[in-house]
Amino acid sequence: MxxxxxxxxxxxxxxxxxxxxxxxxxxAADPALWHYTDQPYLPLAxxxxxxxxxxxxxxxxxxxxxxxxxxxxxxAIFVHDPALLTDRGAIILRMGKSLRVGExxxxxxxxxxxxxxxxxxxxxxxxxxxxxxxxxxxxxxxVGLGFRTNAAGLAQLGEALAGSGVELVPVQLPYFEGPDACxxxxxxxxxxxxxLAVVYRPLLPVPFYQLLEARGVELIDVSDExxxxxGTNVLALGPRDCLMLxxxxxxxxxxxxxxxxxxxxxxxxxxxxxxxGATCLTRAILRETTD
Length: 291
Known about the structure:
Elements (H helix, E strand, L loop, with lengths): L13 E6 L4 H4 L3 H4 L7 H17 L3 E4 L17 E4 L2 E4 L10 H11 L4 E4 L11 E5 L2 E6 L5 H10 L6 E6 L16 E5 L2 E4 L6 H9 L3 E4 L2 H4 L7 E4 L2 E5 L3 H9 L3 E5 L2 H5 L10 E5 L4
Parallel strand pairs: 1-2, 4-5, 7-8, 10-11, 13-14
Antiparallel strand pairs: 1-15, 3-4, 6-7, 9-10, 12-13
């Protein structure tokens, strides 16, 4: 029987992905409370999301909707964060942003409905969000430690992955704009191939930069201007096959010069106002691997 979940990778061909269409909670979001740049206009946000989904469908990706009830959770459209998918099942995380607590239970319900086994669930004081968890390869999970993911979360991820052969690499994140802002590890980097990543170098911790260099990962630098518009937030649909926000022309050109196919989506309401790009809007359920 073919496996319908898994893929410990950021870049293998995307087969099945989970999304959540913007709802009333997103449209009613108080920008000051949610740290948005402005209040999203729901009808346009929904149009942008529908177009985003159609792009995925047009590339042969199976799209599944996460529609479990989630009242007053504006950030719930960013389905990447409440869980991590592994080859042995899902790890249900604990949100570091207090306003997002409760999303974990709803996403677990959806994953169970899809037949994805629950491998582990973070508990107690542990916090971890998906945006801080990046597969460098199938046996290396980089874990950003900052305001959203803490040391207890790192320790419990180690328990969840014990015996799997996965090495956890802690990456200390900078203070940057403080606890209210969203700075995940993947705010600074997106893998687009085994040996190619888009990065914002000024905020990369030196040991992490040195690890990438030692692994032979070529870095495409995002400018200050395009870092502000999430130029680093690139979803790999496959190796060197990228989906990203349409505003970041310099980053797109650099990716194309590196041999990447680049598809863009419009996210004025969906992404730019709410601090979440293409990766944040998706939770990969299955990526094709050679195993």
